[in-house]
Amino acid sequence: MAYVILAIVIIIGIIIYSKYNFSQIRKKNLQKIRSDWGKPKDEEFNFHLIGRYANTIKGYDDYRISDQTINDIDFYELFSFIDRTTSSPGQQYLFASILQPTASREKREALEAKTNLIDSDLALREKIQKELVKLARNAYHIPTLLQDKLIDRPKWLKFLIVSLMVIVLLLLGSIKFPILLIFLTIPIVFNMMVHYWNKSNAYSFAASFPELSLLIDVSKNISDTHHSLKSNEVDRSISELRSFQKELRILSFGGDGGVKDELSQFALYFAELIKAFFLIEVFTFFRLIKTLEQKKESISVLFSYVGEIDMAISVLSLRAGALPTCQPEFLEVRKEFVARNAYHPLIKNCVKNDLSIKSKSILITGSNMSGKSTFLRVLIINSLLAQSINTCFADEFITPYLRSFSSIRINDNLLEGKSLYFEEVSIIGSLIAEVNSSNQNFFILDEVFKGTNTIERIAAAKAILSYLNKNENIVIVSTHDIELAKLLENEYDLYHFTETIEDETLHFDHKLKPGQLKTRNAIKVLELAEYPKEIIEEAKSISSFLDK
C-alpha cells in the first residue's frame, strides 16, 4: 500500500512540475512579446529559409520586384528592420508580400481590418501572439509542401502488396506446417530493406510534416479567439487536413533516442519491427504524400491565414515604433504623386523631403553626396511599403498603384566580361520593356549611362527618358548632366540638391529644392583638397571656355 501511495505522490508531483514548467514558459513568452513590441528584431536572418514561400508561390498578378531593385534599395537590410512578426510562417508571408506588392484594394482593406481589430484589443493580440510563438524560430519548411510534386511515387509500389500477402499466407500456413517459417525470412528481409529505404524519403519531410500539423492546431486556436477571425474556408481546410494529423502519428523520424528506460526502448523497437514487417510506414507515407498533393490548396489557405494575421500584428508593432509613419492614400491611374516629409527608415536622423508631381515626371540635379540617390531610394521604398503593408515613412504619401522598376546601383560584371555601359544597357532595357504594359509604372533612375562619353550619354538619356515618360508612367531621374534640363523641360519638372562652402568646408543640407541647379562646386572641392594651383587654374579656364 505504501508503494501505491508513493507512486501516486510521484505522479502528482510530476504533473504539478509539468504544469508549473509550462506556465513559466508561457510567462517568459509573454514577457518577450511585451518587451519586443515596437522594436526591430535582434537576431540573425536566414533569407534562404525566409524566402522559401516567396519562391514557391506566385505573387498577385505575377509582379515581383527585380533583383536590380532588391540590390538598389538594400532590400534585405530594409526587411530586417520592417519585420516584427512572431512566427516563421508570418515572417515568410511578410517577406513575400513586400517582394511581390499588390494593386489589390481588397487585400489592403483586409489587412487594415485585421490591424484595427487587433489594435483595439490588447488581450486578443497577446493571446494570438502566444499561439504564434509555437511556430516561431525554425518552422520554415511548410512552403515545401506547396510544390506541385512532393516526391516521385515508385512504379513498383503497388506490387508491395504481393510481399504482404506472401507474409500473411506463410504465417497462416506455418500453423500447420512450421517449416514455412524458414521461408518467411525472405519477404521479411525484403520488407525491412524497403522500410529503411523509405526512411530517407520520410526524413526529407521530418521538419515540414510536424510543422504542418502544428500550423493546423495554431490556425484552429487563433480562429477560436474571436468571431471576426473565423472563416468557413479556414474551418474547411482544417477539417480536410485532420486525417493527415491522425496518420502522421504512425511515422517516426528518428527522434526516439531521447527515451531512456529499457522497457520503453524495447516497445519502440518492437513497434518499429512490426511497421517494417508489414510496410506500415511505407504505405502511410505515400498515402500522406498523395493526400497533401491533393489538398495543397488547404495548406495554402492555413499558411496565408496565419501569415496575414501575423503580418497585421507586425505592421502594428512597426507603427508603434520610434519612427513616425502614415497610411498611404491611393489614386486612380494618373500622373500624380505626393510625398510630404518622406524619409529613409534605415538612416538615423534622415532629412525629410517633400515632392509633388502633377502631369510631369521629375529630373533632379545635384553633386555627389548631396542626397540624390538616397532620395530616390526613399521614394521607391515607400512606394513598395505602401502597396504591401499599407504603411509609409512619411507624414503623407499619396500615390497611384505603381509597379516599381529601378536603375540606381550598377557595377560592371567582370565575371561575365560585361562593362559598366553594357550592364546599364541591359538593366535600362528591362525598364523600356515595361513602358507599354497595361500597368502604371514607377521608373527610378540614377545617372543614365554614366559608363559612356558625354555627348552620346546626353543624347541617349534624353531619348530614353522621353520614352519612359510615355502613357501615365512616372519617371524620377537624377543626373549630373544639366544639359538634360533644357532638353526635357516640356516633359519633366526640375528639382535639385545643393551644397554650400563655409569656412573652407563643404556643407550639405540634403533638402530637395525646386528649379534648376545654378551653382557648381566640383573645382572648388579640388581646391579645398589642396590640389596644385596650376591644376585649379587650368580647370577653371577650361570650364569657362566650355560654358561659352
Explain the overall architecture:
- This protein has 548 residues and is α/β, with parallel strands linked by helices.
- 54% of the residues lie in helices and 11% in strands.
- It folds into two domains: 48-321, MutS, DNA mismatch repair protein, Chain A, domain 3 (Orthogonal Bundle); 329-497, Rossmann fold (3-Layer(aba) Sandwich).
- The protein has helices at 2-36, 47-50, 52-56, 67-72, 75-82, 88-99, 105-119, 122-132, 160-174, 180-203, 208-223, 232-248, 262-277, 280-294, 296-319, 372-388, 420-432, 454-468, 483-487, 522-528, 533-547, and strands at 329-331, 336-342, 353-358, 361-365, 396-400, 403-407, 441-446, 474-479, 492-496, 499-502, 505-508, 513-514.
- The strands form three sheets. A six-stranded mixed β-sheet has the order 6-7-8-4-9-12, with helices on both faces.
- Helix 18 links the parallel strand 7 (441-446) and strand 8 (474-479).
- Helix 12 packs antiparallel against helix 14.
- It is elongated and about 115 Å long.
- Residues 255-260 have low confidence and may be disordered.
